[in-house]
From TrEMBL:
Keywords attached to this entry: Cytochrome c-type biogenesis
GO BP terms: cytochrome complex assembly
Gene3D superfamilies according to UniProt: Tetratricopeptide repeat domain
UniProt cross-references to InterPro entries, sorted A to Z: Cyt_c_biogenesis_CcmI, TPR-like_helical_dom_sf
Domain of life where this protein originates: Bacteria
Protein's UniProt keywords contain RNA-binding: no
Protein name, as recorded: Cytochrome c-type biogenesis protein CcmI
The gene coding this protein: cycH
């Protein structure tokens, strides 16, 4: 069944290229046939004119040579066009495209891979989210029980903030990183906290603006995030000046 689908999709994909090529080939043939028919009619006409005495034999010979020359030009014009872009080569190339695609699929793909419907994937994602919630809740409980002078407390809040940010729970990430900042200030963590607050609220809040400024003041000159922090500060100041 999959091969039939591949064949149908290949035909649909190649149709936009194949149809104009087929029309062009037929058009060239029609133009050639029309030109040859016209010149043959002209030959018959000058023969008739000679027979009834409308033109002299010398004029007839000159006209006949000219028409024969035009017939030769019309007869060879399609061949010259074909030399530029051979329709046969184009058709062969179009036919090779699906074959190459199938070859690449068989080489790099997994034809035996079973289908993955959306429903089961959503269920699996929900189960994974539930597991993550359980793990993070346990981490929060553990951190809440640690004494303030425990060296693992700050690292735990940093990990919690990173986990929440990876799930796009920016408000929770900002709260976790703020706990880490309260224990020990770090300019990069301050910038991350400001960014999380900004994403959680959809704009640069006053709290986020203060964090960006404080982070920038304490940041090394070569900090890679300085430009992003400066941009957020400019955005926050603009929002304050234009409420």
């Amino acid at each position: 069944m999959i091969w039939l689908s591949i064949a149908l999709l290949s035909l649909l994909a190649l149709a936009p290229a194949a149809i104009p090529l087929w029309r062009r080939t037929r058009q060239v043939r029609d133009e050639r046939s029309a030109a040859l028919a016209l010149h043959e009619a002209q030959l018959s006409e000058i023969d008739r004119d000679l027979a009834i005495g409308l033109i002299a034999p010398a004029e007839h010979d000159i006209a006949r040579l000219e028409i024969q020359r035009r017939i030769l030009v019309a007869d060879t014009a399609p061949a010259e066009a074909a030399d530029a872009i051979s329709p046969t080569l184009v058709w062969v190339a179009l036919g090779l495209i699906p074959l190459v695609a199938v070859g690449l699929y068989l080489t790099n793909g997994v034809p035996s891979l079973p289908a993955q419907p959306l429903g089961p994937r959503l269920v699996a994602q929900h189960e994974q989210n539930t597991k993550n919630d359980t793990i993070l809740n346990k981490l929060k409980q553990t951190l809440a029980q640690l004494p303030a002078d425990d060296p693992n407390l700050r690292q735990g809040y940093l990990l919690l903030g990173q986990a929440e940010a990876s799930r796009e729970h920016y408000a929770e990430a900002a709260a976790a990183w703020q706990h880490a900042l309260d224990l020990s200030f770090d300019p990069e963590i301050a910038a991350r906290t400001g960014e999380a607050l900004t994403r959680a609220n959809g704009h640069v809040t006053p709290e986020a603006l203060a964090l960006f400024r404080k982070a920038l003041d304490a940041a090394p000159k070569d900090a890679p995030w300085r430009g992003a922090a400066q941009a957020r500060i400019a955005q926050g100041e603009h929002d304050q000046d234009n409420p």
